[in-house]
């Protein structure tokens, strides 16, 4: 895909990649017309992370691309140490571009004596020296408020809905998998001009690990559902939901998610015949071997959106204008 941007980044700009998603960083670099900055990251013999910036970054504006996906602690620590190295190398401004914000699901105390790990991660990033964060489809938008530095919260909704527009799905219905995703589902209904159905999901057990679909509100019989969510991790939730939709007479479903976490039995669950296709982005890499295990997974690139946002931030231009122009009135 060719993306044309309005302007260039100039000479005091550097783009770096951690080890979590170098392919995405390279793609962003190609769109912006820059090479990735020189950095070496590896383990010390005692398993600690060693980072060395291999070029002068004094006085530059740095953008470091690092989703904190699995192994989450490894990737998070790597990001923190890299930011620290950049701060101590006298970078002028450090922006942590975190396409997938790990620990986002731990955004509140769901039961007593639990941490709010998402807030802790936000504090750690600030302490390390980040001046700004760019994230895509945070688990809940309120996580923006956990940061006391500017946070640009982007959404993959336009990337994903363009795909469905091109597919021209007959008799579709947008399905919100739980009450928390109704606002997200409404963006899809607005952009694709499709009706909405809502599923009633209940969680129980340790860490809310057991999921039960207690009902469907809306007309799904004979329709093709597009279930929208932020992520699929083990696929347990979505599996329950497609079965419930199938029992209610729906056609095989499309699933539209931003973050392909895809751990545990996810690939196996997503091969169920009640699933037509899983459309996602590359905020987290989906290696070829995973895609080969399940040919229903279609990965769209989030690089054009991130490249445009980075350029606009660097040029002190409006980021939300990108979404307003696409008639996505409320970005997230
Ligand atoms: C939950 O609130 C999220 O939006 C996803 O539905 C959840 O993270 C999916 O997890 P899993 O695939 O393990 O059921």
In short:
With 332 residues, this protein is of the alpha/beta class.
Characterise this structure.
- This protein is an alpha/beta fold and about 325 residues long.
- The protein folds into two domains: about 15-155 and about 305-325, Rossmann fold (3-Layer(aba) Sandwich), CATH 3.40.50; about 155-300, Rossmann fold, CATH 3.40.50.2020.
- Helix content is about 30%, strand content about 25%.
- The strands form three sheets. The protein has a seven-stranded mixed β-sheet.
- β12, α7 (about 265-270) and β13 form a beta-alpha-beta unit.
- The model has no long low-confidence stretch (mean pLDDT about 95).
- The site of ribose-5-phosphate has 10 residues, from β11 and α6.
What small-molecule ligands were found? Answer: ribose-5-phosphate
Question: Could you state the order of secondary-structure elements as H and E?
Answer: EHEEEHEHEEHEHEEEHEHEHEHH
The termini sit apart by 25 Å
Structural class: alpha/beta
Please tell me the total number of domains.
2
Shape: globular
Largest sheet: 7 strands, mixed
Overall mean pLDDT: 94
């Amino acid at each position: 895909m060719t993306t044309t941007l309005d302007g260039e980044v100039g000479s005091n700009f550097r783009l770096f990649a951690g080890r979590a998603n170098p392919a995405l960083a390279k793609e962003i670099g190609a769109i912006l017309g820059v090479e990735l900055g020189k950095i070496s990251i590896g383990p010390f013999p005692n398993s600690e992370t060693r980072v060395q910036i291999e070029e002068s970054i004094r006085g530059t504006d740095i953008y470091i691309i690092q989703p904190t996906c699995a192994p989450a602690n490894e990737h998070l620590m790597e990001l923190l140490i890299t930011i620290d190295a950049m701060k101590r190398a006298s970078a002028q401004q450090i922006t942590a571009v975190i396409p997938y914000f790990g620990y986002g699901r731990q955004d509140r105390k769901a039961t007593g004596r639990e941490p709010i790990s998402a807030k802790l991660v936000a504090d750690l990033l600030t302490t390390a020296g980040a001046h700004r964060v760019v994230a895509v489809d945070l688990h809940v938008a309120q996580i923006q408020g956990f940061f006391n530095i500017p946070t640009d919260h982007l959404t993959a909704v336009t990337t994903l809905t363009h795909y469905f527009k091109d597919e021209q799905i007959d008799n579709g219905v947008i399905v919100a998998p739980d009450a928390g995703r109704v606002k997200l589902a409404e963006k899809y209904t607005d952009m694709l001009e499709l009706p909405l159905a809502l599923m009633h999901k209940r969680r129980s057990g340790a860490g809310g690990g057991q999921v039960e679909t207690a009902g469907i509100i809306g007309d799904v019989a004979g329709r093709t559902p597009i279930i929208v969510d932020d992520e699929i991790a083990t696929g347990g939730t979505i599996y329950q939901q497609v079965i419930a939709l199938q029992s209610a007479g729906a056609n095989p479903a499309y699933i539209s998610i931003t973050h392909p976490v895809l751990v545990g039995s996810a690939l196996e669950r997503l091969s169920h015949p009640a699933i037509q296709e899983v459309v996602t982005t590359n905020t987290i890499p989906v290696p070829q071997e995973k895609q080969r295990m399940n040919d229903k997974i279609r990965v769209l690139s989030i690089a054009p959106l991130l490249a445009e946002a980075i350029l606009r931030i660097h040029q002190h231009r409006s980021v939300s204008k990108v979404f307003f122009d696409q008639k996505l009135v409320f970005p997230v």
